[in-house]
């Protein structure tokens, strides 16, 4: 457009006089307008170039600002997505932290780390338990060997030790009584079964031998009566055996278990007491004093345990003796009365003895299963 205007201005007519000289030109409005137009175009071109330069500088500045925002901008997890138009309520705000993305991998890794920490904690706890058990076993074994070879001292309660020894001897004797009573029960049961079979045989022969019917009949009745009294006596003996078995294998055994725990506590107490005495005889530096304090604490703990179990053993021995006297008084009276009445042939006294001790006999064949149960 500028070139066309310039060409138009250059081709405009210039008046020439008769000599060939240019005369005084009259003012031409079109030339002046062309000059003004040229000046305005130059000004616009310059301003447009400046504007482009400024725009380029602004674009470079925006690019630099955008890079800074990308590097040091806010965390996307802390931003929010706003739904709705401008000026909307806060109900449309959705925290981006609730949107599952790469955080799923972070949460799974944190959960796996937590499980690993729990497993490590359990392993450390087991290791500490094994360490304490090993140290305690070492000390107790050392104390036991020292006592056996006469090098170490042991805590002795003479009165309690005598009572424990009496209990063990009593248990051995009662076990022998229990063994003999069971043997008597088995033998007497076999005798009763033999009498029952003999009575049936005599009754059968009384029917098949008319000439000896009365004799076989008397013997059959006698064997049946002996069999009935024998079953009554068996009920009394079985009750005696059951009571002795409970006394020996439950009551006495429970007391002996407490005594065993007491003896283990005594061994631990002496082991930690000897350890404390050895440390007390050594140097008195800071490390040794810390060990002495720890040993003193362990000694106090095992001392309290030893005294508590010693008290439990004393109480159980006392109650066991009272219970033993009460039970054996009843069972020995039952055994004596039942045996005396049986061999005296006093059926009424034998039955009265069972009623006195609340013994109920099982009917014959009660131990055998019914035909329906056998099916």
Can you walk me through this structure?
77% of the residues lie in helices and 2% in strands. By secondary structure, the chain is mainly α.
Order of adjacent strands in the largest pleated sheet: 1-2
> What does the average pLDDT come to?
75
Shape: elongated
Number of strands: 2
Model regions low in confidence, pLDDT < 50 over at least 5 residues: 1-32, 69-102, 370-375
Count the DSSP helices. Answer: 8
Report strand %: under 5%
User: Gyration radius, to the nearest Å?
Assistant: 58 Å
User: What series of H and E elements makes up the topology?
Assistant: HHEEHHHHHH
- Helix % is over 70%
How is the biggest beta sheet arranged? 2 strands, antiparallel
N-C termini distance? 124 Å
The structure class reads: mainly alpha
List the keywords.
375 residues; elongated; mainly alpha; disordered C terminus; 8 helices; two-stranded antiparallel ribbon
Question: What topology does this entry show?
Answer:
Layout: H1 2-10, H2 29-72, E1 80-82, E2 93-95, H3 103-148, H4 158-208, H5 213-280, H6 286-343, H7 347-356, H8 371-374
Antiparallel strand pairs: 1-2
Helix pairs in contact: 1-2, 3-5, 4-5, 4-6, 5-6, 5-7, 6-7
What would you say about this model in short?
With 375 residues, the chain is mainly alpha-helical.
